[in-house]
Amino acid sequence: AQSPEAIARTARDAGLAAVQLHADPSADDVAAVRAAWGGGAVWAVLRLADADVPPHAAALFAAADAVVL
């Protein structure tokens, strides 16, 4: 996994408008990337087991600009 600083550096260098975080990021991960980047949107990818949404999903929905299920 890349550090928030590495993600931010890549996003700035590439001129991205959004980054998408994989590997079930937490709300803290989203906040760390947002703080390091200070740029565009931060999306999170959340894996689902069957149709169950994990308990931490509410915090992720609040922190990320978008959540891909």
**Order of strands, widest sheet:** 1-2-3
Helix content: 40-55%
Structural class: alpha/beta
Estimate the global geometry from the Cα principal axes: elongated
Q: Distance N terminus to C terminus? A: 20 Å
CA gyration radius, whole angstroms: 12 Å
Q: Ranges with pLDDT <50 over ≥5 residues?
A: none
Kindly report the average pLDDT value. Answer: 94
SSE sequence, one letter per element: HEHEHE
Helix tally equals 3
Topology diagram in text:
Layout: H1 4-14, E1 18-21, H2 27-37, E2 41-45, H3 57-63, E3 66-68
Parallel strand pairs: 1-2, 2-3
Helix pairs in contact: 1-2, 2-3
Describe this protein's structure.
By secondary structure, this protein is an alpha/beta fold. It is 42% helix and 17% strand. The chain has a 3-stranded parallel beta sheet, covered by helices on one side. α2 links the parallel β1 and β2.
